[in-house]
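Quick one: sequence plus flavin-adenine dinucleotide SMILES, need structure tokens.
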Amino acid sequence: MHKDILIVGRGLAGTLLSYFCKLQGKSYLIIDQSSPGEASSIAAGMFTPISGKRMAKSWMAETLIPFATQTYIAIEKLLETKLLHNQQIYQVFSSIKEQNDFAARLDQADFASYLNPHPLPYPHAVEPFGAFEVNQSGWVNLPAMLSGFEQLLLQEDSLENEAFNHQALNIENNQWHYAQYTFGNVAFCEGHQYRHNPYFNFIPYTPTKGEVLTIRCNGLETERIIKKGLYLVSIGNDCYKAGATYDYIHTQHPNPTPQGLDELVEKLRTITNLPFEVIKHESGIRPTAKDRRPIAGEHPQHKNLYILNGLGTKGVMVGPWVAHKLVKNIFDKEPLIPEIRVSRFI
Ligand SMILES: Cc1cc2nc3c(=O)[nH]c(=O)nc-3n(C[C@H](O)[C@H](O)[C@H](O)COP(=O)(O)OP(=O)(O)OC[C@H]3O[C@@H](n4cnc5c(N)ncnc54)[C@H](O)[C@@H]3O)c2cc1C
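Reply:
Sure thing.
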């Protein structure tokens, strides 16, 4: 049987890639096996145009956020499921310095539209230095999106839940062969596991482990995300995702740790005085490139062999645009911008 493309991995990257292939009318097969450390199923799914302690504008926010928003709305229609939650982020200052940095940002025209210096108070927040609000932000329910696509792919008979064996992939007469299939193209969307990929393991491995809690807390707001060192995203029924940690060292150990739990609980206590109960503790490995840019494009030697990876800490915002660009690159030969090309690692 012949398909236009084989996609290995069904996290956010592989799912979005299959979605844009579908829009182009291309046939595909996804091979995926759930594994420890996968990021998409545990991520809070937040997006924001302003990030980091220094309140920097996120890379290409003006392009990426509208494109992502439009994509998730279209996916909601396809899956008939609510996924996108446009919500402001109530961001608490942790010092006078942060207040001053914020004041400077307000004077910059390209920042001002994203910031509200006078938000309504957030109930039960601990905020000795005050707070501001970020607009054009929100979160996407990634577990719901992944499970919606899983149903769709199973109905289409285009999903195989098994480990992909790289040694069994061969090329003959310009076609990739795997099991009983032939493929015009192959795209690897393996998240942090790309280090085991014999074709793409030349890319430096610089992942970031993250741990996240689901807590139950009565009395916090549900309409906005609150952030102070860590974020709290309301996911319904008085439950919130609280995260995340950033660990650049223990990236070979994907499981949650007592240290991660302590760090998150301690930070939570600086956000609110309300009592809370930890109901879940998860961890994953963010596939992050050293230059914090996505990784996309064709293998430098092997024709029609592609990668989509490096979604890092901002998969929700970056993923739709880069997956769309890669599909245009694979099937319409539209060039990718140099900043995201895999060839930058050679
Ligand atoms: C704690 C935490 C919080 C986060 N919060 C946010 C957030 O709020 N907002 C945001 O935008 N991003 C967030 N992220 C980052 C986001 O999760 C990632 O950018 C994104 O999910 C990466 O998706 P991916 O598809 O590349 O990788 P993954 O989700 O890891 O998916 C890769 C898939 O490929 C499969 N696979 C790999 N190798 C094989 C093989 N040989 N055979 C079969 N299957 C294979 C894996 O099992 C997995 O299913 C967070 C990440 C973490 C860890």
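Helices lie at 12-23, 61-79, 96-106, 109-112, 142-155, 258-271, 315-332. The domain at 2-42+143-205+290-345 is CATH 3.50.50.60 (FAD/NAD(P)-binding domain).
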